[in-house]
Design brief:
The protein starts with a helix and ends in a 9-residue tail after the last helix. The chain is built from 8 helices and no strands. It is mostly helical.
Length: about 180
């Protein structure tokens, strides 16, 4: 939302921003309690289905890099072999979706999360998405900057985003999928 407003030349004093869970915001939008929202799948599809022609969707492809990250708590270490197996399974799932010319897997995945098949590809599946890219570092830095500017964090501490990442597991499985500058 912050990036979209900035791109449109809208300053935060021109809007009232309420922070809530996506599901709560989607429901409030459907009930007419809010005028606009920034949503992700499956909530934007639900809002569009509920409001039909009474909704206008603004998009800006590439404005925000969406990621789903495999996170492991440092106080609960996971066996490296387990992580390697998990990453291999993600890559196999990606390959299966890429080879799904009949669309059976795409249909099943879309149905499981309650969105249309057309909405599935950009929301959930992108070929080559099992990766560790430099863009993730930039994304982390943008989010940290936003959190400090919006006073979301009580005691902002500078951090090195690279310290949050462990490229060694993906390096062991497929080093071509790692483009983080170290």
């Amino acid at each position: 939302l912050d990036s979209f407003l900035t791109m449109q030349g809208i300053v935060d004093t021109e809007v009232t921003i309420t922070k809530a869970k996506h599901s709560e915001v989607a429901a409030a939008l459907i009930r007419g309690e809010v005028d606009a929202s920034s949503l992700r799948e499956p909530f934007d599809t639900q809002v569009q289905a509920a409001l039909g022609e009474d909704v206008v969707v603004f998009t800006e492809p590439g404005l925000y890099v969406k990621t789903a990250n495999l996170c492991v708590r440092p106080d609960r270490p996971v066996d490296r072999d387990t992580l390697v197996c998990l990453v291999r399974a993600f890559i196999q799932a990606e390959d299966l979706m890429a080879d799904d010319s009949g669309g059976r897997l795409h249909d099943a995945a879309a149905e499981a999360i309650g969105i249309s098949r057309d909405a599935l590809a950009p929301a959930v599946y992108t070929p080559g998405s099992v990766s560790l890219r430099q863009a993730l570092i930039l994304n982390f830095e943008d989010q940290a900057r936003w959190a400090v500017e919006e006073a979301v964090v009580a005691d902002p501490q500078p951090f090195d985003a690279l310290t949050l990442l462990d490229p060694s597991v993906l390096d062991a499985v497929d080093p071509e999928r790692v483009s983080v500058i170290r």
